[in-house]
Amino acid sequence: MHPFTYTKASDTREALNAGRRGGRYIAGGTTLVDLMRETVEHPDALVDISGLPLDEVTVTERGGLRIGALVTMAEAAAHRKVRTLFPVVSEALELSASAQLRNMATIGGNIMQRTRCTYFRDVTADCNRRDPGSGCAALEGVNRTHAILGTSDSCVATHPSDVAVAFAALEATVRLLGPDGERSVPFNDFLLKPGSTPQREQALRRGELITGVEIPALPRPLKSGYLKVRDRQSYEFALTSAAVALHVRGGAIREAKVAVGGVGTVPWKLPAVEEHLVGERPSEALWAAAAQKASDGARPLTHNRFKVELLQRTVERQLRIVGGTK
């Protein structure tokens, strides 16, 4: 492991000062420490922010929800307001990792986690995320688990987070604090598609710290849920997944929020699916027709062509689960 210095920040100012000097923030450490052991990451300085007051879940004035960056996955999943207002978030968290990891990992760290692409984690393989300009071994290698949406000639790795898919569907906002003060970034702009710079994965400025994720108030009643399709039923990343939230009033869908995971280089919002649903009455035919649009723009690789149909089936099934039929 590369030598590094370690500082535990006693307050936000100390953390920001250390971050501005190039320190890497760490709390649960469930991703970064692994990458350091594997010599994929080798930061010179770690800044422990686990003692900062960013560990609360609160309801906003308008009826949305703010989840502090240091709330653990387990705490967020079990929180009464999260389960009541946005069950899709609880379900996504409960289908993530193992119970032990959920007790350690934080919400901020979860959305900052890096890809599980085997080529990224193999320091002998070409990977533009790890070593810009070296190439992407997955393009011609074994790419069964890789992305079919949002890819580029530089990178086809998927984003691994489940709860990030729920945040993307709900159009959440990431709250940030940095040397220049506070700012907010829409969740769907926070995680960056690879393009020609896959090593830049988030819209963070130097020294910025995630303070929380805020979910906006949505019309009620709101039904939501998360479906994860994987090779095995525990401790496995998604081949496909779908986060769905529907507001149905007077027999018609008034608002639809849909995003998918396991298939995109970032959690992938599906506006075409949403637009097809709004104003329509729930039915088996509607779910099937809307789900066909889930794979619009897909660019499958040699070994993951099956994901196109699997994605459509996953979205259709979750629409049926959340929206029901008549």
From TrEMBL:
<feature type="domain" description="FAD-binding PCMH-type">
    <location>
        <begin position="1"/>
        <end position="220"/>
    </location>
</feature>
<dbReference type="InterPro" id="IPR051312">
    <property type="entry name" value="Diverse_Substr_Oxidored"/>
</dbReference>
<keyword id="KW-0560">Oxidoreductase</keyword>
<dbReference type="InterPro" id="IPR005107">
    <property type="entry name" value="CO_DH_flav_C"/>
</dbReference>
<protein>
    <submittedName>
        <fullName>Xanthine dehydrogenase family protein subunit M</fullName>
    </submittedName>
</protein>
<dbReference type="InterPro" id="IPR036683">
    <property type="entry name" value="CO_DH_flav_C_dom_sf"/>
</dbReference>
<dbReference type="InterPro" id="IPR016169">
    <property type="entry name" value="FAD-bd_PCMH_sub2"/>
</dbReference>
<dbReference type="InterPro" id="IPR036318">
    <property type="entry name" value="FAD-bd_PCMH-like_sf"/>
</dbReference>
<dbReference type="Pfam" id="PF03450">
    <property type="entry name" value="CO_deh_flav_C"/>
</dbReference>
<dbReference type="Pfam" id="PF00941">
    <property type="entry name" value="FAD_binding_5"/>
</dbReference>
<dbReference type="InterPro" id="IPR002346">
    <property type="entry name" value="Mopterin_DH_FAD-bd"/>
</dbReference>
<dbReference type="InterPro" id="IPR016166">
    <property type="entry name" value="FAD-bd_PCMH"/>
</dbReference>
<dbReference type="InterPro" id="IPR016167">
    <property type="entry name" value="FAD-bd_PCMH_sub1"/>
</dbReference>
